[in-house]
Structures are given as C-alpha cells and as structure tokens.
C-alpha cells in the first residue's frame, strides 16, 4: 500500500477505542487491516479466503471493515482523495474504477 494512501487514511479513520486494563489480544495494526481489506476488494476473494500472510484473521478484518463502514471512513476517504492526490497529479483514475463483476450485490437490498 502506498504511503500516500496510508497518510490520507490516517486522517479519516477514527481513533482506536481504548480498552480497560487486562485481558484480550493486542489490536492488529490498522495498516495491516487496510491492506487486507484492499486485497479482498481487489481480488474478489471471500473474507474466509483471506491469506494468513496478513497476520490477521478474516473475522478481525471483516469486523474492522464493518466498523469503518459504519463510521463512514470510505466516504470521507473518497472525498479527500481527488483533492489531495489529484492536485499533485498522483491520482490515476483508471486504477480507481471498480468493475461491477467484482462487487457482489446483496440480494433483496440492504
């Protein structure tokens, strides 16, 4: 994942919730989760098929995706990308298109 994308993402993602002392596992780094989400989105694989190379379970990646979706992170990122990257000539719109074949629609709507 390009550093420029990571810097933009950090500006729109909500801060991680703080947990009370004790118990649980250490939170997987947001950059690792974002890379895994991009992998799923670009390859079209199912969450359960996420390769273990990312170091996060598919459940963790899916849960964080849902949390960020509810927090409207993707909409905010989409809004600032053209301004930030387009002004520098770094935004290649040909790579930003999503083919309808690779995105599954929910039967019956949401």
Automatic annotation (TrEMBL):
<feature type="domain" description="Insertion element IS402-like">
    <location>
        <begin position="1"/>
        <end position="77"/>
    </location>
</feature>
<dbReference type="InterPro" id="IPR025161">
    <property type="entry name" value="IS402-like_dom"/>
</dbReference>
<protein>
    <submittedName>
        <fullName>Transposase</fullName>
    </submittedName>
</protein>
<dbReference type="InterPro" id="IPR052909">
    <property type="entry name" value="Transposase_6_like"/>
</dbReference>
<dbReference type="Pfam" id="PF13340">
    <property type="entry name" value="DUF4096"/>
</dbReference>
């Amino acid at each position: 994942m390009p550093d420029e994308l990571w810097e933009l993402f950090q500006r729109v993602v909500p801060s991680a919730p703080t947990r009370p002392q004790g118990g649980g596992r250490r939170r997987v780094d947001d950059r690792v989760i974002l890379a895994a989400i991009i992998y799923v989105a670009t390859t079209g694989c199912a969450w359960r098929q996420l390769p273990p190379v990312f170091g996060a379970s598919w459940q963790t990646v899916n849960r964080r995706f849902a949390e960020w979706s509810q927090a409207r992170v993707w909409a905010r990122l989409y809004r600032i990308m053209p301004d930030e990257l387009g002004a520098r000539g770094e935004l290649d719109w040909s790579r930003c298109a999503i083919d309808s074949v690779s995105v599954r629609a929910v039967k019956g709507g949401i």
